[in-house]
């Protein structure tokens, strides 16, 4: 089964991504904070993570660094979904090995599905 974890604090964007993934037969989990996202990651192993960088508490960048330090999490592909390329450039998240793509909000459905498909193709088998 295809699974996705969406970690996004904006409920409208989170719902947009969830609805479009569920329509493509994904099981979807949604979290609105970095802490909750990390906790969920430790409970389930999604096929892909969709991650905002600006989150309350633990930022998306901090979450990515934590994932890279944890052998159980470092192989999960991540699609970064952000409103600011400045955040991406300042944190160098696009250079992290588990980040398969960076999308800039607002995201179109086709971009989202293409990025998720690409991420799943890049995942270690």
Question: Would you mind describing this structure in some detail?
Answer:
There is one protein chain. Helices cover 42% and strands 22% of the residues. The chain has 125 residues and is an alpha/beta fold. Strands 2-1-3-4-5 form a five-stranded parallel β-sheet, sandwiched between helices. α2 packs parallel to α3 (60-69). The model has no long low-confidence stretch (mean pLDDT 92).
In short:
The protein has about 120 residues and is an alpha/beta fold. It has 5 helices and 5 strands; from the N terminus they run E-H-E-H-E-H-E-H-E-H. Helix content is about 40%, strand content about 20%.
Topology:
Layout: E1 2-7, H1 11-22, E2 26-31, H2 34-43, E3 48-51, H3 60-69, E4 78-82, H4 85-91, E5 99-104, H5 109-122
Parallel strand pairs: 1-2, 1-3, 3-4, 4-5
